[in-house]
Amino acid sequence: MDYILSPTFSLMLAVLVLYMGRILNKYIPFLTKYNIPEPVAGGLVGAIIFYLLHHFAGYTISVNKPMQETFMLMFFASIGLSANFAKLREGGKPLLIFLVAISAFVVVQNGVGMAVASAVGLDPLMGVIAGSIALIGGLGTAGAWGPIFETKYAVEGALPMGIASATFGMVIGGLMGGPLARYLIKKHQLAAPLNYEVRKEKNAAPLTEHEYAFEAPYKVRLITADNAIVTLGMFAFALAFAEILKNLTIGTAFELPTFVWALAGGILLRNVVETGFKREIFDRSIDVFGNTALALYLAMALVSLKLWQLADLAIPMIILLIAQSIAMWVFAVYISFRVMGKNYDSAVLASGLCGFGMGATPNAIANMQAITNMYGPSHKAFLIVPLVGAFFIDLVNVIVIQGILQIFG
User: Fold this and answer.
1) Cβ–Cβ under 8 Å, residues 35 and 370
2) Cα–Cα distance between 307 and 56 in angstroms, integer?
3) Burial environment of residue 400 by CB neighbours within 10 A (0 to 12, 13 to 18, 19 or more)
4) CA 41 to chain centre
5) CA 274, CA 208: separation in Å to the nearest integer?
6) pLDDT digits (tens, 9 = 90+) for 293-336
């Protein structure tokens, strides 16, 4: 029996999940030690509870999808609203190097997927579904490409495989990033953990102009009702822009996931207002709404994971996804970490890469927040990852997928 929670109950559940994660991280040292984000910890417990209800009582409980999607779009809009052209220029060479490295990983991820799929007796295109479509692309991209693979390329079961793979990636991407960054930091002695008093004092300090959106989620932002209203209006513009462009580009060469248009709408509005109208944007208000949307979206997404879809995966599919996880770890440790400088920033970037390389950009931000809250800030990582993970890499992914289909389709 299926139950879809109303928006009110969905919001209440998300808040309960977030506080559950906070309590778990406070009383279970393992979670704090390995920098597991609070929404991941609480969300997985909620997903397990829902799995037990499904298995033993036959109930399937889902959150309100429009509300969940709205929080996701708000998060990506906040990235766009925080990214003026000056910051893009500030990213400079490191941003370009990271983009090139991750673009190479899109090819690697699909290569691993196709090779393993062929080795275990699956259609090689199944490896693309369980490659960059589901992992770097996420649930939305898997849902969009699945029917195309089934109807146009006769890949039977592409949609459920894509959804299951993206679900797997969401879990692993949230669990892998923190331990990987901690391993790199300890191995190369890049930073020492801040003690509780220092972290508390750091979080209580005023937000500085050098800290980017989402970099310091626990710091207090002083905003007024007027600031909040103006900021909500900008979010509304970005989401409306996304809806219009999504409808206009359906079935064309410019069709992109809705969240990419939300991010683009935020960037457009930010730079038109600042450059064209010479009006200053109140970043602290954007930070508050963006961090709130991120936390609520992650809580809803993770508690909604249908874990029985993973349990039903055939052995070959499990082997394929394990191979992708190993490839992600190896690439993050031996390629991304090294080309980005083998320093603390590159370790934080590696944790973010695990987040969006296996799941989604919100996972990446949560991974990095967990690391920087423990070891200290990384301005470079919070400048580069949102722009690459939420915008540029999706364009690269589409180009790579289309190229593979031209050759193997």
Assistant:
1) yes
2) 14
3) buried
4) 16
5) 20
6) 888 988 888 788 777 765 656 678 788 889 999 999 999 999 99
